[in-house]
């Protein structure tokens, strides 16, 4: 985990230096992390819009992550496409196949959570506005450093520089109220009613066997939810088009197209876009044929899906390589290859500073010595531990800040309040329309809190409970045993309610809240450094001794580094103080029933159980 550092977290003077280009037409603002940030004229045209300015009311220190496994991707993609071809009632509600609108995926999703870190860390009141400026600046610094050392070799021109900077600036413009909480918890639950009638019908042909004892459709739901983890990037792309159209910004169409590709880079690698393949007759033929065979063969569904998936991956890689030049540019803002990007550089440093935590990770060192080889950004072998510290510090932030037990309690309450207010305020009605979506921001809570309408009474009461610190009560938690991680399925309130013994208080699902917290190093149970490429030592500060990149296997650098890369923590909350004892007992019974032992570290304190 990130080691504590007593030094001032302000960056060194070198980081405040402007890139080596003409600043006469630029304006500058002073950022409390990076110092002076110089804004070029085109960037200012985007900044000075109401759509971008609304980011000032978006809390930054609210994050969520979903571990994505290859098999999840396989089923999310294949089942979604097959179900849309066979059962047009769901996915083909979105008629524009050139870009699968994020609503296409939202319509068939169940649940997730995110929220309000500043309620526990009062200093974490910085916004996505500051973060976006920081990513803009670091993206510009990164591309200028590459241009300085390898500009002629890589063919980096002014178009590339401007595109990368705009992508850094606008990468988060699509966030809704409370950032990830809105897209990963609120929206799926709002649309969960759609699931009951249609999801089951659509998924019936695709209920392949996976986790023993688990509902057969649960694996598919988990996979598709991982698509929603990138919904704000999809909306960012839509809002960029909207901003250009509404404000008549004079910018090349090719640049806007590239900007959107750079923003979607990480989600594209996680689950690539499929629009191009609908127009390939062979691809459509194999999907339809595979669907027919899967219906007939039943148990052979795994084989059919695997064939489809690997054909798709092979075809996609060929098209990707032929369609994209300068692929190293896609590693700068949203790196889908290994997760090392300037977005993480900024929020890790900024959030650590705002929360009063130490951060010993030095991203300037990585930016100064990174080089491009084989169209990929590579790092010195001696920086292996520095990169590991990046991922470890991020995991530390998730554990101690973003998923703090009190933070999650507040988030669950905010989601409950939004859900209760949605039918009256129609909060979710604007998610398909960028011209309405940008108007949503965190002030929705103040609207609910101050409105006199009787229809908002339940939501208003929840907001007042938050203000008065009368939160859902944390009962206990346990870490899922390492050997159970692979086949773990999320614990639900129903699981806990069904685990209570006869007698005593009768628990209902609505009395219980469960938070399934996954913390990893960005690649699930895999080591993210396995996806990084390294080079040998620098000579004379500029050139590398060898022009061959290489991976570094586990155990070659240090035996003190972890060999497990993911934690799964299950937390249970009681929505009513008088039910803490009953919920805690049911939670213990669930652990005994599931694992044969109580996996929690200690019993729920008796003092907490007696709280009224």
From TrEMBL:
<protein>
    <submittedName>
        <fullName>HD domain-containing metal-dependent phosphohydrolase family protein isoform 1</fullName>
    </submittedName>
</protein>
<dbReference type="Pfam" id="PF01966">
    <property type="entry name" value="HD"/>
</dbReference>
<dbReference type="GO" id="GO:0005634">
    <property type="term" value="C:nucleus"/>
</dbReference>
<feature type="domain" description="HD/PDEase">
    <location>
        <begin position="124"/>
        <end position="259"/>
    </location>
</feature>
<dbReference type="InterPro" id="IPR045509">
    <property type="entry name" value="HD_assoc_2"/>
</dbReference>
<dbReference type="InterPro" id="IPR003607">
    <property type="entry name" value="HD/PDEase_dom"/>
</dbReference>
<dbReference type="Pfam" id="PF19276">
    <property type="entry name" value="HD_assoc_2"/>
</dbReference>
<dbReference type="InterPro" id="IPR006674">
    <property type="entry name" value="HD_domain"/>
</dbReference>
<dbReference type="GO" id="GO:0006203">
    <property type="term" value="P:dGTP catabolic process"/>
</dbReference>
<dbReference type="GO" id="GO:0008832">
    <property type="term" value="F:dGTPase activity"/>
</dbReference>
<dbReference type="InterPro" id="IPR050135">
    <property type="entry name" value="dGTPase-like"/>
</dbReference>
């Amino acid at each position: 985990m990130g080691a504590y550092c007593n030094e001032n977290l302000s960056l060194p003077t070198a980081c405040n230096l402007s890139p080596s280009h003409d600043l006469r037409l630029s304006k500058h603002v002073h950022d409390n992390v990076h110092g002076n940030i110089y804004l070029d004229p085109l960037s200012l045209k985007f900044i000075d819009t109401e759509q971008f300015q609304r980011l000032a009311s978006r809390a930054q220190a609210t994050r969520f992550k979903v571990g994505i496994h290859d098999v999840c991707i396989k089923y999310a993609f294949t089942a979604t496409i097959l179900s849309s071809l066979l059962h047009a009632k769901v996915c083909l509600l979105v008629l524009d196949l050139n870009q699968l609108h994020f609503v296409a995926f939202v319509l068939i999703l169940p649940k997730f959570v995110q929220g309000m870190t500043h309620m526990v860390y009062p200093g974490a009141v910085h916004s996505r506005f500051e973060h976006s400026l920081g990513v803009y600046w670091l993206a510009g610094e990164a591309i200028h450093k590459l241009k300085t050392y390898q500009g002629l070799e890589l063919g980096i021109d002014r178009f590339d520089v401007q595109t990368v900077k705009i992508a850094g600036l606008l990468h988060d413009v699509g966030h809704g109220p409370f950032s990830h909480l809105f897209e990963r918890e609120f929206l799926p639950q709002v649309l969960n009613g759609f699931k009951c009638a249609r999801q089951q019908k659509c998924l019936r042909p695709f209920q392949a066997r996976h986790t023993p004892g688990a509902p057969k459709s649960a694996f598919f739901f988990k996979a598709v939810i991982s698509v929603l983890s990138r919904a704000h990037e999809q909306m960012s792309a839509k809002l960029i088009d909207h901003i250009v159209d509404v404000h008549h910004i004079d910018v090349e169409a090719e640049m806007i197209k590239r900007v959107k590709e750079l923003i979607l880079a990480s989600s594209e690698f996680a689950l690539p876009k499929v629009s191009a393949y609908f127009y390939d007759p062979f691809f459509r033929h194999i999907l339809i044929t595979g669907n027919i065979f899967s219906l007939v063969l039943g148990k052979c569904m795994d084989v059919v899906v695997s064939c489809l998936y690997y054909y798709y991956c092979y075809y996609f890689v060929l098209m990707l390589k032929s369609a994209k030049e300068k692929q190293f540019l896609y590693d700068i803002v949203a790196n889908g290859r290994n997760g090392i990007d300037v977005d993480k550089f900024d929020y890790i440093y900024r959030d650590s500073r705002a929360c009063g935590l130490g951060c010993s990770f030095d991203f300037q060192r990585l930016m100064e010595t990174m080089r491009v080889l084989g169209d990929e950004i590579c790092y010195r072998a001696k920086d292996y531990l520095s990169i590991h510290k990046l991922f470890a510090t991020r995991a530390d932030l998730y554990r101690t800040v973003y998923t703090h037990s009190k933070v999650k309690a507040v988030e669950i309450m905010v989601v409950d309040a939004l859900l209760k207010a949605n039918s009256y305020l129609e909060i979710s009605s604007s998610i398909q329309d960028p011209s309405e979506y940008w108007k949503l921001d965190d002030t929705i809570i103040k609207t609910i809190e101050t409105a006199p309408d009787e229809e908002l009474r339940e939501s208003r009461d929840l907001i007042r409970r938050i203000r008065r610190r009368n939160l859902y009560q944390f009962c206990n938690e346990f870490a899922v045993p390492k050997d159970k991680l692979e086949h773990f399925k999320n614990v639900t309130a129903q699981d806990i309610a069904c685990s209570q013994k006869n007698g005593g208080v009768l628990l209902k699902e609505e009395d219980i809240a469960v938070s399934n917290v996954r913390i990893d190093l960005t690649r699930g149970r895999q080591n993210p450094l396995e996806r990084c490429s390294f080079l040998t030592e620098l000579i004379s500060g500029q050139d590398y001794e060898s022009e061959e990149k290489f991976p570094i296997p586990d155990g070659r650098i240090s035996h003190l580094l972890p060999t497990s890369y993911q934690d799964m923590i299950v937390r249970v909350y009681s929505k009513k103080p008088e039910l803490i004892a009953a919920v805690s007992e049911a939670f213990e019974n669930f652990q005994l029933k599931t694992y044969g032992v109580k996996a929690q570290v200690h019993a729920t304190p008796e003092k907490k159980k007696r709280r009224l």
